[in-house]
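Worked example 2:
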Amino acid sequence: MARVSDDELRRLAAELGDKLRARGWMIATVESCTGGWIGEVLTAIPGSSAWYERGFITYANAAKVDLLGVPADTLATYGAVSEETARAMAHGALMRSPVHATLAVSGIAGPDGGTPQKPVGMVCYGWALNDGTLMSSVCRLDGDREEIRSRAVAAALRGMIELIG
């Protein structure tokens, strides 16, 4: 399998930017396994300062707690790679940013770190809107580290595009 192309990531970022701009909305991103790739893709779009407010890279659990207020109990009970944590990350970013929407990603990109319960390629997403909407999903992605990460970026963008219509 190949990674998601740069052209496709740019297309998704531009589509999301158009939807945000049309509503006068700002977005914040929260990334773990994608390490800032979503923020990079979004800010590569000319004019993104009109709709991209900030990004959090919370790779370590302590960063999730310190920067986003993810409850330590959530991390202890469900782990960093869980829908519960992804929702808490998205919600925390919404509470700590003057934005209308947030998206969050946490996963296991590999090649190490997987377990039978949480294999390499498991990625969890959270999306939050300031109207109280809070959604999440989990998927299993195939491929090497680069392929998993690029697919996670694309899925996070697609999820937000779908959510805001």
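The CA atoms of residues 13 and 42 lie 5 Å apart. Helices lie at 6-23, 37-43, 61-68, 72-78, 83-95, 145-164.
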